[in-house]
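Running low. Any example?
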Amino acid sequence: MKISVIGSGYVGLVTAACFAETGLDVWCMDMDEAKIADLRAGLCPIYEPGLPELLRRNAEEGRLHFSTSLAEVLSGSEAAFIAVGTPEGEDGSADIRYVRNAAHSVGRLMTGDLVVVVKSTVPVGTSAEVENILHEELDLRGADFCVDVASNPEFLKEGHAVNDFMVPDRVIVGAESERARALMAAIYRPFLHSEDCLLIMDRASSELTKYTANAMLATRISFMNDIANLCEKVGASVDMVRMGIGMDRRIGSSFLQAGCGYGGSCFPKDVKALIATAARHGSSLSVLEAVEKVNEAQKKVLFAKISRHFHGALAGRTVAVWGLAFKPGTDDMREAPSLTLIRALLDAGCSVRVFDPVAMEKARALLGHDVFFADDMYDAACGAEALALVTEWEQFRLPDWTRLRDLMQAPVIFDGRNIFGVEETKNAGFTLYRIG
C-alpha cells in the first residue's frame, strides 16, 4: 500500500518513518528543496532520538521516499496524511492556512480515490473544512473521485516520539465513512498491541481530544507550580506533597513535578488555541486561562529568586545557565523557560554563560552574541556567581561538586527542576534554592 505524508516537519517525519518501518510504501513531500535534498542524502533535519536511523534504514531499503512534487507523491496513494504546521495566530488561535493550502493542492492533483487524513493539530471543524475544499476542487475539475477525510491527531512526546508512535497508548481516529474507518484500522494494525488501543469517533471529538489532552497535562503542571509556590510560604515540601497525592490512583504521579514552567511547541500553543476556540463559540475556559497565566508567571520565578539572593544588585554579575531546550531529549527552543530567564538576566546587566547538550545551535540563532556559549557544563560555570538549572538533562544530575565549587566564584545554585538534593548540595558547600 502506498501512502503519502505532506510535510516533513517533526510530525511528518516521525509519521513517515514509522509507517515505512511496517512495510508500507511511504512518500514524504515538502516544498523546501534543501530539506528534501538533505533527507535524500540521509540527513535528519531535527533532533529526535532514534529517528535518523529509522529514516536512513527505510530509505535505503526502498520503503521511504522524499519528493518536492505533490503530484508524484499522490499518484497511486490510498491515503494522504496532512502534517503541516499550524502556528499560533495573532489572537492565539491556530493558523491553519497551510492545512487549507495542502487541501487545495490535493484536490487539484489527486488522480484517484483517496482518504485524506488531517494529522496536524487543528481546531474543531477543520476536517470538515478540508472535506469541503477537496470537493470544491474536484467539482472545478469535473473529477468524480471518492474522497473521505479523517482526523488522526498525534500524541508524540519530543525525545520519545518514535517509541510513542510505534507503541502508542492510543490511536485516535475521527471518521464519518466506513471506508475511512476501515483503511485507518488497516494502516494502524501493526501498532495496536490491544484492541482497546484504537478509538474511532466523530471528527469533531477527535480534533478536540488532542487539544484537551495537552490542556489537561498543562493544567496539572501549572497546578503543582501554584502549590509549590504556596509550599515555600507555609514551610511545606512540594516533593512530599507530590508523592503523597501521586499515590492516589485517581490522581497518579505523571506531570506533577514542580518547576520553572512549561514550554515547547505544543502546550503553550494548544492551550491558547483551545481558549480561542471557546471564545469563537461564545464560551470561556476559565481554568485554562488561569493555567496560562500561572505558567507565564512561573517562568519568572528563577529570576526572582536570583534577584532576591543578590538583593537586586545584579548588574555586572556572571550567571551560568544549564539547559536551554524546553525539556530534555530535544533541541526545541520554542517557548523555552530558559529564554525568559536569560533575557531577564541580560536586562538586569548580568553576563550569562550557557550550555545545553544539543540545543546550542538553536539557541545561538535566538540569542546571538548576547551570551557566552560554553564548551561544556563546567565551562559554563567558570567564574559564575550563581548557577541556574533550567533543563533537567541527565548529565546535570550528578556533577563533580568539588570541581564545580572550585570553578564558581560563589557556590550558589538555583534548581529550576528540583533535581538536586538539599543534603548533597549542602555537604558539597553549596547554597541551594529549589522550587517549592
